[in-house]
Amino acid sequence: MADDTAKGAPRPRTRIQQRNTEAILDAALEVFSAQGFRGATLDQIATEAGLSKPNLLYYFPSKEAIHIALLTSLLDDWLAPLREMTDSGDPQAEIMRYMRRKLDMSQTMPRESRLFANEILQGAPRMGAMLGTDLKALVDEKAALIRRWAEAGQIAPVDPHHLIFSIWALTQHYADFDVQVRAVLGPGHNPHAEAEIFLSTLFEKLLKP
């Protein structure tokens, strides 16, 4: 009788294995975002996850393997809002929705933002290939869409790639420089709400035909 499981096929993870994997990745996100890749250690990640180092190594063979797993998942999350930009809606509304999603991510995913920024500042040694393939292909696709909108007179003429870069820079600033933003604004301010008002006005004026 043939074995029901194909030879070489990975066995499904148990609940405990799934829980431990998630605990390791969440702990690694905390440690990497605070210490950077070079400053982080497996001992720190294991302690944060509530596991022994040998137990951690059962799931991931190295610090780099954990880092790559995090970055791969992060890039998929990071690109999701851009994928949702389509030609079925109003062009300006589509771009503004993307900007607001990115700003929301800066508030709800600050650790992920710092992890991504640290990797880029180091020259993207572990995700350079993904930047030149998955990310570039999607950005080029959406840049072409924005260019068609501009050529049709539906939005003002803009350089589509630099428009996307500007959205990244102006929204991610509120995650990566949160301490500075709050220090400068002082008490009694809501940086996220104020940023949404300001950036909405800025991009609406820029995009108005």
Throw out a few tags for this protein.
209 residues; mainly alpha; Arc Repressor Mutant, subunit A; Tetracycline Repressor, domain 2; 2 domains; 10 helices; 75% helix; 0% strand; globular; disordered N terminus
Give an overview of the whole structure.
The protein is mainly α. It has 2 domains: 49 residues, Homeodomain-like (Arc Repressor Mutant, subunit A), CATH 1.10.10.60; 141 residues, Tetracycline Repressor, domain 2 (Orthogonal Bundle). Helices cover 75% and strands 0% of the residues. It contains 10 helices and no strands. Helix 1 crosses helix 6, helix 5 runs parallel beside helix 8 and helix 5 packs antiparallel against helix 10. The protein is globular and about 60 Å long.
